[in-house]
Amino acid sequence: MNQFGVIVRSFSNSAAVNSAIKNVTIIGGGLMGSGIAQVTAQAGQNVTLVDVNSDILAKSQKSINNSLGRIAKKIYKDNPQEGEKFAREASERIKTATDPVAAVKDTDLVIEAIVENLDVKHALFQKLDNAAPAHTIFASNTSSLSINDISSVVKRKDRFGGLHFFNPVPVMRLLEVVRGGETTDSTFDTMMQWGKSIGKTCVACKDTPGFIVNRLLVPYMAEALRLLERGDASARDIDIAMKLGAGYPMGPIELLDYVGLDTTKFILDGWNKNYPDQPLFKPIPILNKLVAEGKLGVKTGEGFYKYDKK
Ligand SMILES: CCCCCCCCCCCCC[C@H](O)CC(=O)SCCNC(=O)CCNC(=O)[C@H](O)C(C)(C)COP(=O)(O)OP(=O)(O)OC[C@H]1O[C@@H](n2cnc3c(N)ncnc32)[C@H](O)[C@@H]1OP(=O)(O)O
Ligand SMILES: NC(=O)c1ccc[n+]([C@@H]2O[C@H](COP(=O)([O-])OP(=O)(O)OC[C@H]3O[C@@H](n4cnc5c(N)ncnc54)[C@H](O)[C@@H]3O)[C@@H](O)[C@H]2O)c1
Known about the structure:
By secondary structure, this protein is α/β, with parallel strands linked by helices.
């Protein structure tokens, strides 16, 4: 089945995979948090999506409703009315909030998808640890930080793990479920079951840098940027080469624009700090220049490439 086939199958099967989790709070309504909120609501669960202000949350909701419309057209192509009902009901399951403490008072799972910065993640989780119910599981959607490092500030280390989604969340079928050093079997099993209940194919990984995909993706994308910096090939030709030569749906440069150059820089700077002797993670001038100019990729309309404003 194509990705939509999987979504349809998973969507219809998601109810079949019972999960103890019914109420989910997602902190960070950006690229990833909005997608995680959407697929969770699509699976019939109650969602509270939190961000720092209502303008950002309005943008999150617009993005979610656009995506729901695209998926509804696929699943219910022969029954538009049912499609509208599916999209409306999923959207209605998502509440938004700007107060993270209030948003975790009655929740079973908190998924953090805020900026890739350990200090900011620490400040958030410290606040939530004293506010959420004792049974609530905490998870981070971090791309590159250690789950053990993130959870070092909370008491509930036994109920803390990684739930690493892939962009765009409504389409990418994979979910990496990451165990921290103190994650209990019960917490891990609940996260795996929950991942299946929202229609994802779950793989398990220890708390190792980059988990599985990014551990392999980062060197590949790093070398692509260095090819570009040396002038060995143009961005366009590097992307065409990897799509036609390796069968990738996107080339590495357009993928960097797609995931966000700010997030990319956060990840690279973090790994360079942790592994200063690894030449692969040395700062990349062309990346730093674009980020300094506010050219963050698709999300700002320009990165390595220019994009039509949506
Ligand atoms: C060391 C120095 C440098 C590097 C340092 C650090 C590097 C950091 C890199 C990692 C950064 C973080 C990474 C993160 O932690 C993990 C990731 O997320 S990795 C990225 C994973 N994702 C991908 O690889 C995406 C690859 N691209 C694709 O799969 C496709 O291009 C696409 C995005 C699905 C778009 O498909 P296209 O065919 O190109 O375009 P369409 O618009 O036609 O879409 C196809 C199909 O999908 C539907 N669709 C697309 N987007 C959405 C959406 N948001 N919601 C709903 N539906 C969507 C669309 O309707 C189409 O449906 P169809 O008509 O085909 O049925
Ligand atoms: N971009 C990707 O492709 C991708 C894929 C997988 C995982 N991730 C990870 O997901 C996380 C988010 O990435 P993104 O691309 O969605 O970033 P983003 O910049 O699109 O969204 C981050 C959101 O978090 C909000 N935020 C920041 N601090 C906050 C706080 N203290 N409280 C509430 N909201 C806060 C911001 O306002 C923003 O809307 C990062 O850890 C990233 O590494 C990213």
